């Protein structure tokens, strides 16, 4: 069920008129009608194709100077408001309670010529209670979450770009499980306006593509003050974060990770092993408690009125959040900056440009009752550092395994530029 649908290639074809938007939408329609019933990545929409056709007709065709994402259909995670669509957040709450102005990122994409392909399935309120979405590589396995529908839709080739959010690991983990590129920018580099929050101190908006080149195009539209990096950059020095953090991965996941690091080293990369994150258990706790406390703040009024409509896992998060003292919230927020500064200082001391780590503990677990463990993504989200999931072309029992690469705060442009060569090197 995996189909090539690389964003950069499609952008180029739509720009030079070697492919029309109408032809492209017809391709997607055929593919979606064949695949979507098996993976359930999209919220149902009765008039999707007529709506898209009408919107495509309204696109201004300016000849050779088309907008950056001209005619590109984008999946929108269903915690983001988009004009003409309900926001349900995979919850049983009344939709009218969840409405709001269109998300800034949706407006940015439309302004760049993109079309809203549709809403994609999310775990309830972007936390842990999964929707019906299945992994396109093996429908007996989870696609990850909470951005499950966005990751699965891109992996299956239904759309070349989809929006996601990450509060612990909800972009990088599903990208890893589905064998695609996921990009989580530096904290606050992409607007979260118009997105139902989980935890405003650590929420990030990012996206999925099948290609690093496509991720760079999307980032140039969505990231504030994007700078174009010239070609010919030196290869980065890569750091392996040795210690208790890395040991959280599964034995299979770690074994494959080591082979990926060796592949990079054999190709000429300078790879250094550095002891880091000795306090990972404390960081994990700070992050999880902060997230619970801030989720309780977000949901307080809804939960007081509709508490019985919440899934058990979401209700447990909110209930825990009520028990977190104000002082502990402050400690959690301060820990974000302390962790960022500590990691940056170690990178400076050892001349490391990027960290590399497993994209998840291992391949996608069997079943869709859980979205998998986000623990390998947590410290990088906590620190707000830009992170990219890069497919390795490798698999365990037919399920993809990926690496994640992390650079210094606000070096998103460099990370994506470096990601091109790393992705090519890791291809078998």
TrEMBL record:
SUPFAM superfamilies in the cross-refs: Amidase signature (AS) enzymes
Pfam families, alphabetized: Amidase (PF01425)
Superkingdom of source: Archaea
Boundaries of every Amidase domain copy: 24-416
Family annotation (InterPro entries): Amidase, Amidase_dom, AS_sf
Region (Disordered): 128-149
GO molecular function, one term: catalytic activity
PANTHER family: AMIDASE DOMAIN-CONTAINING PROTEIN, TRANSAMIDASE
UniProt-recorded name of the protein: Amidase
Organism: Haloarcula mannanilytica
